Amino acid sequence: MLTRRPTIVDVARHAGVSKSTVSLVLRSSPLVKGETVKSVRSSIDELGYVYNRSAANLRSSSLGLIGLVINDLRNPFFTEFAATLQKTLAQRGYATIIGDTSEDPTLQAQTVLSMIEHGVSGLVISPAYGDTTGCFERVLRAEIPALQVLRRIEHGSSALPFASFDYGKGGALATQHLVDTGCKKVAFVGGVAAREITQERMLGYLTVLKEQGRLPLAWHGPTTRLFGREMAIAISREHPDVDGVLCFNDQVALGMLSGFAEIGRAVGRDIRIVGFDDIEECDNTWPKLSSVDCNIAGFGIWVAQALVDWLENGRQLETPYIADVELKIRASSSGVS
To answer: Which of 41, 88, 141, 275 has the largest CB neighbor count within 10 A?
Structure first.
């Protein structure tokens, strides 16, 4: 097993062919027979070789190319991050290519490999969940600056610098606020229980309830508006004593606003809700949605600047960067205006 980054010569030796044959396979030339192509591709996969088509050109160019891999661009939280990052990088002379993996680790691996092959100078990855071992190993072998953001995936990624938010503090602020407004039974709704980000967002919630001598009550599931709407109806029917809810994210919370409106339960009076992320829509819905503000735009600027500093000055992020959060209180938890 090679301990260094494999080269085209290593692939040729492993496959028992010439370097020029490997080069033809990498360029998808029709001159190479099918069995030879299969053998070379097998060696590439086994050695973990990454073909960088344009690294030489990029090294001599004043314009670098940055790859941004996002787990779900349909979520406004990630969309705002991507837009801010791209704009900030453009101001520093870097172009950005963006890939949406739709929470698919296989698509993520393909996207990352394609970006490396096309010569990106650096990568920013908000990872999908699942088996990401091969994906992150390819990133490390490519030996380019790469940041893991917003989510931490342990499989093969421990060497990647990490940046995110103080989700635990956010959960504590929101839960304490609901308790202070008089809520007797506060529930947590949304998120997959086994995932680290769900546990982080629940940490503050569980801590506050423990301090209050109260038992937690959680319903986990998709982080979507549909799930939030369905849970609003189900909770009202089966647990009418729940009078406060902290949602995994704003998508779930906005769905709950819709569900409670559908059955005539007044949010802010009959039940109080706090979301998480504070996307733009929180301030434009009715009632306005209280939410844990993560300042995703500011975070996008910080990540872009950190990556550029690494690229241009060699200053790699040595320890995790955890950004602060605050609670934005609006009518959904303080009372309908």
So the answer is: 275
